[in-house]
Design brief:
The protein is rod-shaped, with a radius of gyration of 39 Å. It has helices at 23-35, 46-55, 72-81, 99-108, 120-173, 225-237, 262-276, 352-355, 366-376, 382-396; strands at 15-19, 39-43, 60-64, 89-94, 112-115, 180-182, 186-193, 201-207, 212-220, 249-251, 257-259, 283-291, 296-302, 308-310, 316-318, 336-340, 346-350, 406-413. Residues 1-9 have low confidence and may be disordered. The longest helix is centred in the middle third of the chain and has 54 residues, at 120-173. The strands form 4 sheets. It has a 6-stranded antiparallel β-sheet. Helices cover 37% and strands 23% of the residues. It is α+β, with helices and mostly antiparallel strands. Helix 2 packs parallel to helix 3.
Length: 419
């Protein structure tokens, strides 16, 4: 056997175990390995080798196949069953050359074979091949460790963010303190269901004076936290709890408030969005007020879906002129429009999350679908209407998560209710 001087790459294979019942064969192999710079351990039987592997970390094993007691195959099988931090490379020494026997060794867990008598250059080549495999295994293990560690950190961050978003959802929902209110001859009900933890839709109402109240529905572009923060800021401009800050109200001589023209409010919000807020967000909106004495609803439509009116007899029609979104075009012009209600009539203002709700057939519900749902629910009123409406909307969407926020305002008028 020729001696080969070699300096293998260190750090992957440090300790090699030589297992053979022949002391002379062990000494020959150990001499090679020692000269190549490896730490060598020897065992004269499979049982002795297994006990040593349980005590020490062994990187690579060179084991004879035929040994009394525990054979090389039996030892290989037991070696593979050990709990180890890293993979151990296993080379079987054999005089066998039949394919079936080699296949049996591979099936047991051996990585490579050497035929006796062992040539030094061939042994070194097989060990270097083993080192390449072990190096890749170590690198993969380290990368997996880093991935697992990173995933754990991401999971912890996600859990923290999820908790924050749950609290943010509670805060956003608190912007709609009342989901229904009775104004005497008119009643208002609200529906607000974000598609995620928080959303960009907001609906609400506010009292103006004894004869008038306002309603609004808005939908900020995008989804998530930025949109939700914008809805919170816009809510402050339309709040009923602090009328002096409400852009939709103006003070009148002698005290009290009157409604500002909705179109003027929209124009002012447009300037605020473009000149002061410095954001790429914009929003659609319907803002209006209802007069209990004249039964007239005055509103501005800013790119929001057309509201619908359902007459007392059940007939459903849409109204509105579309208009431009707020915060998109400098100097955008807005116009007021008016519609009169009679006893038993009602107005429904929906977000595009409703009109664009998937219908389960690669289409959307659309205005026609919404009108059909409303017509079917002619006998339902207030919050009960929205309960059933949302149930039917879930059926349309095949009980899947809604892809967009769902929001709506229902304004119902009936003077007879006050009698």
């Amino acid at each position: 056997m020729a001696y080969i001087q070699a300096v293998p790459e260190r750090g992957v294979v440090n300790t090699v175990l030589v297992v053979d019942d022949s002391r002379a064969q062990r000494r020959i192999l150990s001499s090679y390995l020692g000269r190549w710079g490896y730490v060598v351990r020897e065992a004269g039987s499979g049982a002795e080798a297994l006990e040593l592997c349980q005590r020490e970390p062994i990187d690579l094993v060179v084991s004879d196949w035929m040994m009394p007691g525990m054979s090389g195959l039996d030892f290989c099988r037991a070696f593979r069953a050990l709990e180890r931090e890293h993979y151990g490379y296993f080379i079987l020494l054999t005089s066998k050359s039949e394919k079936a026997e080699i296949a049996q060794g591979l099936d047991t867990g051996a990585d490579d074979f050497l035929t006796k008598p062992v040539a030094g250059d061939e042994l070194l080549a097989r060990i270097r091949a083993g080192e390449r495999i072990l190096r890749m295994e170590r690198e993969l293990t380290e990368k997996n460790r880093l991935v697992s560690s990173t995933l754990k950190e991401i999971s912890e961050l996600y859990d923290s963010l999820d908790r924050d978003l749950i609290e943010a959802r509670k805060l956003q929902q608190s912007l709609v303190r009342e989901r229904a209110h009775d104004f005497g001859a008119a009643q208002v009900a609200l529906l607000l269901r974000p598609s995620g933890h928080v959303g960009g839709d907001l609906v609400g109402f506010f009292p103006i004076n004894a004869d008038q109240f306002g309603v609004f529905a808005l939908d900020v572009s995008g989804h998530g936290i930025a949109s939700a923060l914008m809805t919170a800021r816009l809510a402050a401009y339309l709040t009923g709890s602090t009328p002096e800050q409400n852009l939709a109200l103006r003070r009148v001589p002698g005290g009290g408030y009157a409604p500002e023209a909705p179109s003027r409010v929209a124009a002012r919000l447009n300037r605020l969005m473009l000149e002061e807020m410095e954001t790429d967000l914009y929003f659609t909106m319907i803002l209006g007020y209802f007069d209990l004495r004249s039964a007239e609803f005055v509103m501005v439509q800013c790119g929001h879906p057309h509201p619908l009116v359902q007459r007392a007899g059940g007939e459903v029609t849409y109204f509105g002129e579309g208009g431009l979104p707020v915060g998109l075009i400098p100097g955008a012009q807005y116009a007021d429009m008016r519609i009169s209600l009679r006893d038993g009539d009602r107005i429904l203002i929906c977000s595009d999350g409703i009109t664009e709700c998937p219908d389960g057939a690669d289409g959307m519900l659309g205005e026609t679908g919404v009108a059909e749902l409303v017509a079917k629910l002619s006998g339902e009123r207030g919050s009960a209407f929205f309960d059933t409406f949302l149930w039917d909307l879930n059926d349309v969407n095949r009980d899947r998560d809604f892809p967009d926020d769902i929001s709506a305002v229902l304004l119902e008028f009936d003077r007879h209710k006050t009698r």
